[in-house]
Amino acid sequence: MPLKYFIDPVTLVKLEINKCLNEGLLSEYYPLPFLIMCASVRIWKGVPSVTQLINGTRMEYLKLTIDYAIKPSDMAFAVIGIRAHKKLESFDTDISFPEEKLCMEDITGTMDLLEQQPNGDWWLQDYKTWGSYKIAKCLGIVKTEKPLLDEEGNQILLKTGKNKGKPKQEKIFTRDSKAVDMTDAILQLNRYRMMAEEALQEPIKAMKIFAIVRDNTTYIAKSRGIMEEVYYIDVPFRDDKRVDMYFETKKNNLLLALERKIMPTICTEHECWEGRRCVGYCNVNEMCRLVGDNLYLKEETVNEMMPVARGIYQGYENIHVEPQSGRYDGCDPTAQSIPDDGRESL
Ligand code: SF4
Question: Is 59 in the pocket of ligand 1 (CB under 6 A)?
């Protein structure tokens, strides 16, 4: 299993997960059930999942081919999300299908909730426990400022501080459809929709994300215009052919790389969050750095580390990177927006 180690939060030493779970290593920092949840990863059976294909191909390839390590504390929000999902899924009703597992064209997907409305329409829903930053992006919240006025309509001036005498500003939050940034959710839910429509032989009339705000009531959430604890967010419909093309290309890229043992090209800017994921949120960034083509990661140690990289990569004579020309740029959802299929989101 490629996820093999936990990182000790103090010494940063890698410890085998089996030993942590069976011999109580790390018990002074984390309870055992938390570690068990952190260690649960989907077992690879040769069929990629929708969420796997939304991630960068290189990242998913490395997670399947090298032994990697995670810091259990980095999994805290993921564990909260899993628990919230499980609780919501446990309330099954006559008109809903929670946790529906489907497979279409050798891609698996698990929908959180497929629910029939009183008028007979089917809605597809996904639960998310997201931070306010992501929710603000999905809602397209734009912050502007305007001078604060008193009851008579006069500007209120600041009385102290370095801006003394200047008009006091009021923050205004508005929703702008042009600022909406929810590419991954659009791809994920549209693919689930296609799977559900195939299984039901009926159209899905709405796709929605039920988002629980992880950091609600905090100053930072309010500063982003996120004032509620939960949001019900409509996900736009997209053209089936384009969604299919995206997933087919990503699936073929991953399976071909695994079959030929060739390192996929670096993740796209969208997939690696303009480098933020590479630097702080990718569990296989150590190996990616050793490939030597990731400008977001320090490169000074690359040459001396190449023999080590080959050691880690047992069975691979060379770390050969798939040529750039082998990449289908159209599968970068940020390169060109996927056209709407004409259906209106409710
Ligand atoms: S470090 Fe960045 S580019 Fe490399 S696999 Fe991770 S996310 Fe992708």
Answer: yes
Is 263's C-beta closer than 6 angstroms to any atom of ligand 1?
no
Residue range 42-139+177-326 in CATH 3.90.320: yes
Q: What is the domain partition of the chain in residue ranges?
A: 42-139+177-326, 143-174
d(CA 195, CA 108): 9
pLDDT tens string 108-163: 988 888 889 999 999 999 999 999 999 999 999 999 998 899 888 889 999 888 88
- Specify the ligand 1 atom closest to the Cα of 275: 2
Q: What does pTM read for this prediction?
A: 0.80
Strands 107-116 and 96-104: antiparallel
Which of 85, 89, 107 has the alpha carbon at shortest distance from 97? 89
Cα 333-323-239 angle, rounded to 5 deg: 20
Residue 147 neighbours by CB under 8 Å, 6+ apart: 155, 156, 167, 168, 169, 170
Distance between CA 245 and CA 61 in Å, rounded?
A: 20
